[in-house]
Q: What sequence folds into this?
């Protein structure tokens, strides 16, 4: 049986099932490009393709990554940023940092803003809140819209469509992106105006990074005392020392398995974003400062590509001496 939804132009849909069906129909009419197809971006593209969305184009500075993914999902490889905008109505960006975000939204030369009228940019990178505000202003000037969609999850969740997503931007931009983002997430929250979701994400990662550094020190001291670390982790899990980081990283710290899901380099970068916000608001955050120094040290000593659990290499006795 085929269900039909009839919508009178200009009328608001009040029936929830009809509204959901209409949004799904509209989202399937959107074409999607991905800019930045590393481990997160590529898995998000695969997920949306699996859910029936039209992923038409991919772009990455590493041409081989883009070509491999395009061949896998039947998309076109873009040679320029402007081509990515041309080939899609919604452009999802997943880049590394502030510099990379500014580079794809330049006001001259090759840019996603070329021919952007009517397009929607959904920006998923963890970058400074002010960058998202600047990109929104640039998008509006180009006749487009933008939405930050900050992810508090990792690679596995990107592939499975169980990301925790926090968005910032106009309600109209959120409502347009919502059907697509729902297929990527198990929790989707609209935080507020541009920059607000990025502020929340900075605080999420700040607290997570403090917890990670603290856990590495606790387990490292336990190792120095000759304690059974498996038993110690079990005690932690049943007391006030419990945390999500204990469940995700504790065993990896003990076993030195630092396969990367969220790198030490990204932890260092994200910690600095939070510290910048603190300084701008006249706050002194000594724990955040200390955790940032540890992640910066992790990077400087050549461990930045390891998972954030690799911070344990700096604290466990006998593992690393410098």
A:
């Amino acid at each position: 049986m085929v269900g039909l939804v009839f919508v009178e132009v200009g009328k608001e849909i009040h029936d929830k099932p009809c509204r959901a069906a209409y949004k799904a129909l509209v989202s399937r009419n959107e074409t999607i490009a991905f800019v930045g197809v590393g481990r997160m971006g590529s898995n998000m593209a695969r997920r949306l393709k699996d859910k029936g969305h039209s992923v038409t184009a991919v772009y990455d500075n590493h041409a081989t990554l883009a070509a491999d993914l395009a061949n896998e999902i039947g998309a076109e490889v873009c040679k320029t940023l402007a081509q990515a905008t041309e080939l899609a109505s919604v452009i999802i960006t997943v880049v590394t940092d502030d510099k990379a975000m500014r580079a794809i939204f330049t006001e001259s030369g090759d840019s996603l803003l070329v021919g952007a009228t009517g397009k929607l940019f959904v920006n998923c990178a963890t970058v400074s809140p002010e960058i998202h505000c600047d990109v929104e202003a640039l998008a509006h000037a180009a006749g487009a819209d933008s939405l930050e969609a900050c992810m508090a999850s990792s690679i596995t969740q990107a592939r499975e469509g169980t990301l925790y997503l926090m968005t910032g931007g106009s309600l109209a931009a959120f409502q347009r992106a919502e059907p697509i983002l729902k297929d990527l997430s198990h929790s989707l929250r609209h935080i507020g105006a541009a920059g607000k979701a990025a502020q929340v994400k900075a605080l999420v990662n700040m607290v997570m990074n403090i917890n990670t550094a603290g856990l590495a020190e606790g387990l490292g001291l336990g190792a120095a005392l000759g304690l059974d670390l498996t038993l110690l982790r079990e005690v932690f899990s049943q007391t006030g020392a419990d945390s999500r980081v204990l469940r995700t990283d504790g065993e990896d710290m003990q076993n030195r398995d630092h396969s990367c899901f969220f790198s030490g380099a990204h932890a260092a970068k994200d910690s600095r974003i939070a510290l910048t916000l603190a300084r701008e608001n006249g706050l002194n955050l000594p724990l955040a400062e200390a955790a940032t120094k540890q992640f910066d040290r992790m990077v400087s000593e050549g461990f930045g590509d390891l998972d954030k659990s690799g911070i344990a290499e700096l604290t466990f006795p006998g593992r690393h001496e410098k």
Summary: Residues 1-14, 17-22 have pLDDT under 50 and may be disordered. The longest strand covers residues 185-192. The chain is about 50% helix and 15% strand. Residues 16-194 form a domain with the Rossmann fold fold (CATH 3.40.50.720).
